Amino acid sequence: MVTTEQKKQIISTFAKAQGDTGSTEVQVALLDAQIKDLNEHFKTHKKDFHSKTGLLKLVSKRKKLLEYLKRQNLERYKKLIETLGLRK
């Protein structure tokens, strides 16, 4: 589970302005943290299929947000991808 402290740190890192919690970059970064946390969960709980369904929904939502950001602002998209290390 992503703690409140981790969320605050992610928001402060990716926010465009003070109090920005809803920009695309912040949303993608928070989803990425949740996805990484669930991947750690699956290393010990291999048969947790209900959580796997939630993971697939999170991955899909992150993908849609990244596609939106790519259409709107390619530079911000490239910077976010590089910062999070999503593409190779």
Automatic annotation (TrEMBL):
One of its GO terms (molecular function) is rRNA binding. The keyword Secreted does not apply. SUPFAM superfamilies: S15/NS1 RNA-binding domain. CDD domains: Ribosomal_S15p_S13e. GO terms for cellular component: cytosolic small ribosomal subunit. The keyword Transport does not apply. Keywords: Ribonucleoprotein, Ribosomal protein, RNA-binding, rRNA-binding. One of its GO terms (biological process) is translation. Belongs to the universal ribosomal protein uS15 family. One of the primary rRNA binding proteins, it binds directly to 16S rRNA where it helps nucleate assembly of the platform of the 30S subunit by binding and bridging several RNA helices of the 16S rRNA. Forms an intersubunit bridge (bridge B4) with the 23S rRNA of the 50S subunit in the ribosome. Part of the 30S ribosomal subunit. Forms a bridge to the 50S subunit in the 70S ribosome, contacting the 23S rRNA. This is Small ribosomal subunit protein uS15. It comes from Leptospira sarikeiensis. The lineage of its organism: Bacteria, Pseudomonadati, Spirochaetota, Spirochaetia, Leptospirales.
